[in-house]
Specification:
Shape: globular
CATH superfamily of the largest domain: Protoporphyrinogen oxidase, mitochondrial, domain 2
Bound molecules: flavin-adenine dinucleotide
Strand content: 15-25%
Number of helices: 18
Radius of gyration: 23 Å
Largest sheet: 7 strands, mixed
CATH architecture of the largest domain: Alpha-Beta Complex
CATH topology of the largest domain: Polyamine Oxidase, Chain A, domain 2
Oligomer: single chain
Distance between the termini: 22 Å
CATH class of the largest domain: Alpha Beta
Length: about 550
């Protein structure tokens, strides 16, 4: 099977972009239907894999999803401790619901029919940002966000408006390029050639950092720190972080709303799984894929840990690209430049956090927030380094009060459920079980003490019913991502492209945090659609 490559060279869009687009290539031929068991085998039932499965099954392709864990969802999952139900990950999902601009994620939910399976609700608070001398509460829509900033920094009004314009313009540009990944040949060349003229905001900020944007819009260091507060979710400190990712995410949250899922993010994963089954697809949990079977340079199927094999015409990996390239397929099947590029990429950080159940309702104590960030300094570079070294007493922490979301699943009346989250490096966690547990216990208490500077009740043992830490090792066990990373690659301007959804193996695709539509639950689902779309294009399905 031949694979056509896009060999345009476009000085304007930058070397990284070109290199990745060339690597991505664009396959236009379809593998023979032959007697394969399935049209598409998907390795992993995180949101990327599930979203791909739903789009493919909707178009009558025979889909098999294989998941190593005993339930679907990957990060999008929940678990029970006593009377409390914890969402393992989701705080705030961008662009999820009806009634807004109806772009991006919500369109995908509607197309697959998953919108009928889940109830999304909007969170009124975007976040409260607290650091020495500053405490600002920001609503989850542009007007409220801008008013809160102007009330605190009236002298920055022009910059606040400018920031809004830059976010909206950049998002509009990105939306106008959203199908570029499907284009080949002259069409791709023409679209890319016109970028400097047509997508001016995208073109201006593609190589810039968040710091560059902040310096362009604002004077006060404090407003810069508050506006860029979500760096704690985007996988790099402000001076290193890609402006594009930040601008698009901010516009998505403030333009389309900040969403959560009734019944936790597990309900979204279950909704996808149910829809795939209704559409004739098959999902097998408790099934670890250990090998992609290769024949004549392309994938012919997969082998599982129990020795079972399934044949398929296409393979989609909801895994990190390292597992796919080095373990499941084998480096020898990949061009040297692809492997080299993969090895040169810097992965992002993982997370450390604490799941807490309290026997008091924090609302009765005056806390009606849903998302608070507390930082010991406004310097994100310093905070990043401290967190990566595990110095939590002097770091930053995200405090999420799920029991204030208005969904009774989290905690019974009179009680509260809180999650604390900070960055972490896999390397600091010992493999020896005893040492690991001892360190974890110490760090759990450190993170709680940090959060207690905003909510002192968190450190009162009389109020705490549950406190359970999670580390990069926990996340690695549940996702199999290298280093327990949840953001894919470190999100610098040099790496925002991540890896394309197609790979040098012409019938193998990738859909995960590590691929091009970035990270987060919304992006994972967009990645699923992109991988599915590339296959549907090859099948000639509109
Ligand atoms: C603590 C935490 C908080 C977060 N908060 C937010 C938030 O507020 N908002 C937001 O949008 N995002 C958030 N995220 C990020 C978001 O959850 C992820 O970006 C997204 O869910 C990742 O989806 P994915 O498709 O890449 O797959 P993953 O969730 O990484 O799942 C991959 C799946 O593949 C399976 N798998 C891997 N290898 C194999 C194999 N060989 N065989 C079989 N199965 C395999 C794994 O078991 C797993 O189920 C958070 C994540 C964490 C951990």
């Amino acid at each position: 099977m031949k694979k056509k490559r896009t060999v345009v060279s476009l000085s304007g869009i930058g070397a990284v972009f070109c290199a990745l687009m060339m690597l991505a290539g664009c396959a236009t031929t379809r593998p023979a239907a032959a007697e394969a068991d399935y049209d598409v085998i998907i390795i992993g039932a995180g949101l990327g894999g599930l979203s791909a499965g739903a789009h493919l099954a909707l178009n009558n392709l025979r889909v098999l999803v294989l998941e190593q864990h005993d339930k679907v969802g990957g990060c999008a999952t929940s678990f029970q401790r006593g009377e409390f139900t914890f969402d393992a990950s989701l705080h705030e999902m961008a662009g999820g619901g009806a009634g807004k601009k109806d772009r991006g994620l919500y369109q995908l939910l509607k197309v697959t029919g998953v919108d009928k399976k889940v109830e999304l609700y909007e969170l009124p608070q975007f976040y409260r940002s607290v650091f020495p001398g500053v405490d600002v509460d920001l609503p989850s829509n542009w007007e409220g966000f801008k008013t809160a900033l102007k009330d605190t920094w009236p002298e920055e009004s022009d910059g606040i408006e400018k920031f809004h314009r830059i976010c909206s313009d950049t998002m509009d540009d990105l939306m106008s390029l959203k199908d570029l990944f499907r284009y080949t040949g002259a069409r791709a060349f023409m679209v890319k050639a016109m970028v400097p003229l047509r997508q001016r905001s995208f073109f201006k900020y593609k190589d810039k950092t968040v710091q560059d944007v902040l310096d362009e819009c604002f004077v006060s260091e404090e407003i810069k720190a508050v506006v860029s507060q979500l760096w704690v979710y985007y996988g790099a400190p402000v001076p290193d972080q890609s402006a594009l990712v930040f601008l698009a995410a901010t516009e998505s949250y403030l333009g389309d709303g900040v969403w959560h899922i009734k019944g936790t993010s597990q309900a979204l994963a279950n909704g996808y799984a149910e829809r795939i089954s209704e559409l004739g697809g098959r999902i097998e949990t408790g099934t670890l894929v250990t090998r992609v079977i290769m024949k004549d340079g392309i994938a012919a199927g997969v082998k599982t840990a129990t020795g079972r094999t399934y044949t398929g015409r296409y393979i989609i990996a909801n895994t990190d690209p390292y597992q796919l390239t080095f373990k499941l397929i084998g480096e020898k099947y990949f061009p040297r430049d692809y492997v080299k590029r993969l090895n040169e990429f810097k992965p992002a950080n993982s997370l450390f956090g604490v799941y807490m159940g309290l026997n008091i309702d924090l609302k009765d104590f005056g806390y009606d927030d849903s998302e608070i960030f507390y930082s010991t300094t406004s310097d994100s570079g310093v905070l990043y380094d401290r967190m990566m070294k595990g110095e939590y007493s002097d770091g930053a922490v995200a405090i999420t009060i799920y029991s204030n979301y208005g969904d009774s699943i989290y905690a019974p009346p009179g009680k509260s459920l809180v999650t604390l989250t900070g960055y972490s490096d896999f390397g600091m966690w010992p493999s020896d079980t005893k040492e690991y547990r001892a360190l974890k216990d110490r760090k759990v208490d450190e993170l709680i003490s940090l959060a207690a500077r905003v909510i002192p009740e968190l450190a009162d043992p009389g109020y705490v019913e549950i406190k359970e830490g999670f580390t990069p090792r926990t996340l690695k066990r549940f996702t199999m991502n290298r280093g327990g990373v949840v953001y894919g690659f470190y999100l610098s301007p040099q790496q925002w492209q991540k890896v394309p959804n197609d790979t040098p193996i012409s019938n193998v695709y990738i859909t995960s945090n590590w691929s091009q539509a970035w990270h987060g639950m919304g992006s994972a689902q967009v990645n699923g659609w992109r991988a599915a779309r590339l296959i549907l294009d090859r099948e000639g399905i509109k």
